[in-house]
Structure formats: structure tokens, C-alpha cells
Amino acid sequence: MALFGNLTDRLADTFKNLRGKGKLSPADIDGTVREIRRALLEADVALEVVKDFTGRVRDRALGDEVSKSLNPAQQVVQIVNDELVAILGGEARRIQFAKTGPTVIMLAGLQGAGKTTLAGKLAKWLKSEGHTPMLVAADLQRPNAVTQLQVVGEQAGVAVYAPEPGNGKGDPVRVAKDAIKEANRKQYDVVIVDTAGRLGIDTEMMKQAANIRKAVDPDEVLFVIDAMIGQDAVTTARAFQDGVDFTGVVLSKLDGDTRGGAALSVASVTGRPILFASTGESLDDFEPFYPDRMASRILDLGDILTLIEQAQKNFDEEESLKIAEKFATDTFTLEDFLVQMQQLKNMGSIKNMLGMLPGAKGMREQLENFDESEITRTEAIIQSMTLQERRVPKLLNGSRRVRIARGSGTTVTEVNGLVNRFEQAAKMMKTVARGGTPQIPGMGPIPGQKFGSSKQQPKKKGSKSGNPAKRAAENAALAAPKPTAAAGSGFGLGSTPGGPSEEELASLQKFLGR
Amino acid sequence: MASPWSLSSALKGMFARPTIDDTTWDDLEDALISADFGPDITESVIDELRASVVKYRTTDPVDLKRMLRETLEERLAKLDPTLHLSNRPAVVLVVGVNGVGKTTTIGKFAKFLTNYGRTVVVGAADTFRAAAVEQLATWAERGGAEIVRPQQPGQDPASVAFQTVERAQREGIEIVLIDTAGRLQTKSGLMDELGKIRRVVEKQTEIAEVLLVLDATTGQNGLSQAEAFIQHAGVTGLVLTKLDGSAKGGFVLAVQEKTGIPIKLVGQGEGIGDLTGFTPHVFVQGLVG
Hints:
The complex is a heterodimer of chains A (514) and B (289).
Chain A: H1 4-18, H2 26-42, H3 47-62, H4 64-67, H5 72-88, E1 103-109, H6 115-128, E2 133-138, H7 145-156, E3 159-161, H8 172-186, E4 190-195, H9 203-216, E5 220-226, H10 232-244, E6 248-252, H11 261-270, E7 274-278, E8 286-288, H12 291-298, H13 304-314, H14 317-329, H15 334-346, H16 350-355, H17 364-369, H18 373-383, H19 387-391, H20 398-408, H21 412-434, H22 445-460, H23 466-479, H24 485-490, H25 502-511
Parallel strand pairs in A: 1-4, 1-5, 2-3, 2-4, 5-6, 6-7
Antiparallel strand pairs in A: 7-8
Chain B: H1 7-16, H2 22-34, H3 38-55, H4 61-76, E1 90-95, H5 102-115, E2 120-125, H6 132-143, E3 146-148, H7 157-171, E4 175-180, H8 188-204, E5 207-215, H9 221-233, E6 237-241, H10 251-259, E7 263-267, E8 275-277, H11 280-288
Parallel strand pairs in B: 1-4, 1-5, 2-3, 2-4, 5-6, 6-7
Antiparallel strand pairs in B: 7-8
Helix pairs in contact in B: 1-2, 1-4, 2-3, 3-4, 4-11, 5-6, 7-8, 8-9, 9-10
């Protein structure tokens, strides 16, 4: 069940009717607003937030800024996006560190929200930022929560302070207090206090949380909330705000097929910013939260910025320019292809990256089934070629192909497939490269078309799904060193079937400051 | 502290009014949506009630309240909530997304069964999450059940399940509860693993029940969880946990109606005795008042 993805579909449908209209009548706007309301409710945004939100969108849509603009429909999407960003907290905020002594971060939330796992992720992230975090096991309620934290701490490679065995024994307030002394003594600069899960209506437990807060005087109190929570998000968030007065929110389990209606509810009701989003089971699946990017994600405009950042982090710019040059001069070989692929592998999960492309929601299911080992297989095929063969693929006659297939443990058909795809890709990239560097608008549609084609191929031929998808990602990576408006807007736009036209979306994204 | 929102208090104001008017309907819609029934079910419930109000020519909100209770009860009672644990050993597989309370539910369920004089063994097939086995062991001890642990960390969960069933057959233990690792329904690899556990156990004996644990605070995502787990694990019943909080779990009605899988158990707290069978009447009573 697509959740927020729905919103885009619904808006696209509504806007199809609006297209060509120079003016929006109040009835048109009411219809659109009703669709938005329903889509938000299905995405589990709290009712009072939905009412508020649609009210504001409606007022603005009926105002002058829309009626006077050249394309009212786009203006409405722009308004929705603006309001989403506004609710989600506008600017991205980071953790505030203490000026002296250790920075104390306390985690609180419902049972099963993912506090303990998050403690590990946060610690690992802080460690990679050059801090020396210490985890504190103040969840003495849940059976073996202490053991779990110890294991998580070990995985993250950070210290864990756990003086009490837990399982209902010991005083969490004392543990938290002692932990600060311990951190001072051992010179840890960040203390992360994991507390027991508690219900918003459990007064006694809320009092305990408040006492822990009083005892350690934390610099940040993070409220961890499951992205899948429904209408109860508001009640729970309010209870925790009254009980412990958190300073920031962390969204967990954002990797299900939910798109995080809870994010909107909590941010809107409490006015506290969302600091982090936690997305998977591995301790590395943790990222700072960017409101504007989340808004794009909700509207399914993709998360190009994060994608580009990841690409930049792992991509050698010089190398990429060299490759681009090779495309232009028609000297791109299978050898370069191999290097590209290995770089790509460094970037992390292809699934994650593709999921950030706009319009990728239709592919989500296929993405999940996408077999990353396909890359390894392709790598094996290329590595089974001689250097000369890699440079001059024309050499590859029948018997050479049989040898390569045997050497790489694949079949001749697979080798043929790879060579064909390589030739096509090289040809296409050549056209692209001749059209100029990525920021020239002509670049735009081409990766888009390829992205679109990658959508169909996995259906036809399951085993070959790796390569087209990979090519799309590669395109993204190639454009990455020069993130500009046009490069961003180019990706995957051709792949929104039945939605607004390509030009519309392109100009829409310009509106959105992409 | 803010007083917790509840459907019954939201409804109280509405039913105190002298007649049914447009505000009544709007308020009712808001109340149902706030209880996580979701836009679709809310709409169909309201349409049904509107039709009844016209049919019985009533304008009294008290009648409406009664009708609401009846409608919800009738919808929830359509399916049979009995657990079928007649074969020996009766194998119960417990599945769900992360953090819904699978392990806790197993502990309570074991206690529930030992109270009736049944012998129970639990299998710790959650070999993934840190310290999950220890957590289950603590619960098993409280519930008076035997436990089969994986021989090494990260062991294939299906083999733990196999060993558990084997032990039950060997020692004549009546009921086998198997704990599985939490998994999000979108992770197809992990979902396939559930299929494997199922296949492995089925070679030994028939699986009596596959229980999907759902967190009452979940919203409309609960439906997509249910659909995925039904497809991969062949769920036969639902367990609704954390009903002691402020969440009302209205989404289970949508789940039950769309999938045809009945709610079988309800968890209401952290105590070992806080698990009961599902009775539509009690559930609706708690909801509507």
C-alpha cells in the first residue's frame, strides 16, 4: 500500500483536470484540497494536523498568488510543498553540544519504538564524526535490554556503562546520574542515555523519565517515534512533551513502505524539530533529517540532494571527469566500465540510491527484489576478459565468449547480454557527452529515458535487472560532481507515466529550488 | 499531563446533544478517523449509520450510539476468533514487524497456556536481534515454559524451529511457540526466510497457527503489514498488542475486513497475565463506552 506516494498520484490526477485552465475556480480548489485531505489521512497524518494543513493550503490557493500566476496548478503544488517544509521544521537542525563537560543525550519513547538500536546508531555516527560517545543502560525494565545495549555498543565499537543487570532491578535515575560522573572521569564527550519504553498514559513511568531528566540535565532529549505510528502519534507526542519535554525527534523504521505521516504530526503538534531519521537494521542506516528533502519525498519528487551527497562522498571527481571525457572521445572501454562499477559499489546499497530518484515509487517493489549480486556477476565477466578484450570489445568472437563464460561461471548468453548492453550504453553516453556537460538542459531527458527503460526491463528479464538499474544509478553518479538545477531535474522525469508532462515537472522542480 | 484522548470521551459530547445534525456526523467522522479506522472504513461505517438513522426515523443521539456499537460489533464478530491448538504438538509461529511485542506476547501466551495445564516449549528463532534470545529466556522462565536456544549466534532460524519441534515431539510437550525476528514487510529477503521456517516445520508436523502481532499504535500501515505477512507466512490470526496505551487500534477492523483474518488475542500491558482472547463486545465497549 503506497502511503504518501498516493498523494502525488492523487495530485497528478487532480491536476490533469486542471491542466490548461488559466484560472482555478473555488470548486477546483476544494476538490484538490479534499484529495489532499484523504491522501494525508491514509498516510496516517493526524486529523487535527490534516485539518490545519488543508485549511492553510486552501486559503493560500484561493488567494492572489495563485490566481495571478501563469500556471495555477503548479502554484498549488508549490504551496503544498512550502507548507510541508514549514511544518517539518524549515531549516535542518543539528545536535547541540555542551560547551563544557560531556554532552548528555537522553532517549525516550514508547516500547518498541527502536530506542536501543537507535542508541547504537547514534553512537556510531557520533564516533564517525570524531566524538567519543558512551552508552548508558538505563532501561532496567525490559528483560535483557541491558544485554542488548551491550551487544549494540560492541557492534558500534563504543563504551557501554551498565552497572545494573536490569530485568526490573535497579534504579535508572541513579544509573544515569552515576554515568555522568563516569563520563567525566573517563573523558567521554557524549553520553547517550537509553531509557525504558513507556506509554504516554503511564504516569508513574513518565515521572521516572522526568526524574532521569532532572538528574542528568541533558543537552538534548530525543523522542524516538516509530514512523509507522497512526493517529495516536499526537497523543503520545503530547504526553512525552508534557512528561519529559523533549528537544528533538528521531523517526525510526522509515524504511518500511510508510512515508512517515507521523513526521508531519509530531513536528506540527509539538513544534520540535526532527533531527534524525533511522532507516534500516544495520547500524549505519542512520542519517540527519532534512525537512525540505522529506517534503520532496512525501510529494515523491525524489531525494536528489541526499543522492548527490552520497555520490560525492564516494566518488572521485577527477575520475568522473576522465570518464566523461572518454565518453566524448569514444574511448570508453569495458575496463573503465569495471572501474565505474567498483566505484558504484562503494557508494552503498543501490536499492537505497535508486529509491531516492524522483518517480521511483512505481519501482519500489522491483527495487526490493533487485539482486545486487548481479553486479558481482558482471564484474566477474569483465575480469575474465583479457586486457585487450576489455579495450577492444570487437575482438570478442564466439570462442572467446565461451572462454569468458566458463572463466566467470556464467553462460555465453550472459556474456552476450553484457557486451550488447555495454555497447548501447557507450553509444548513449557518447551522445550525452557530446551534448555538453551535465548542466546543459539537453542532458536532462536522456538519463530520464534510460531510467524509464530500466523500469520495464526487470519485468521482462528478471536475471538481467541489475544492469539497467545500475546504469541509471551510474548516470546519476556521473552527473553528481556538478549538482545543478538542471542536472537534478533531469533524472527520471520521463518515467512518470500518466502524470504531468515532463516540462511541467521540470519547471515544477525549478519552482522548488532544485 | 494531558488527559489521554479517547474515542468514548470524544463521543460523549456528541451523544449529549439533543438531536442528530450535521455536526454530529462530522464529529463522528473525526472520532473514527482519530481511532485509526482509516478513511475507507470510516466512510462505510458512517454511510451505514446514516442509512439506519433514516430507516428507523430516529433523531436521538442515544440511538445512534447504540447503532454505532452494534455496527462495529457486528463487523468485528464476522470471523471466528478461536485458536485451534488441537494437534499434538500444536505449533504456533509468531511473526511481525520490529518492535511490536512478539517476544513479550510469547511470554504471556506461554503463561496463558500453562495456566490451563498445558506444557509449552518456546523456540528462540530470533537469532538476529541483539539479546533477543535472553529476553525470550526471561519470559519463558516467567511463563513456566521450556526453551530451545540456538547453538551459536546467527544460526539459521529455520534450524532452531526444527530443533524446537523435534524436542516437543521427543518429550511429548503439547504446545510449541516459535519466536521469529522482527522484519519490515518490505524486506523481501527476510520475508522469504519466514517461508523457509514454515516449510521446514511443515515437514515435521502441521502448523496449527501463524499469529501476526500488530501494535495498536500502528496506523494504516498495519494493513500493508498484514497483507505481506499473509502472503509469505500464511497468517491465520492476529494479535493486537499495547492496547493499554492511548491508541485504539481501529485499523484492525480494516485489516480483518480486507484480509478475512480474525483477531485472536489482545495484549494489554507488561504484566505476564495481560493477554486475553479477543471478544468483539469487550473491544467495542472499550472503544465506544
